Amino acid sequence: MSGVRVMVVDDHPMWREGVARDLAEAGHQVVASCGEGRQAVRVVAAARPDVVVLDLQLPDVSGVEVIRGLRAAWPQVRVLMLSASGEQQGVLDAVKAGATGYLLKSAALAEFLDAVRRTAAGEPVFTPGLAGLVLGEYRRLAAAGGPEPGQDTAPRLTDRETEVLRLVAKGMSYKQIAERLGLSHRTVQNHVQNTLGKLQLHNRVELTRYAIERGLDE
Question: Is the distance from CB of 28 to CB of 68 less than 8 angstroms?
Answer without folding.
Answer: no
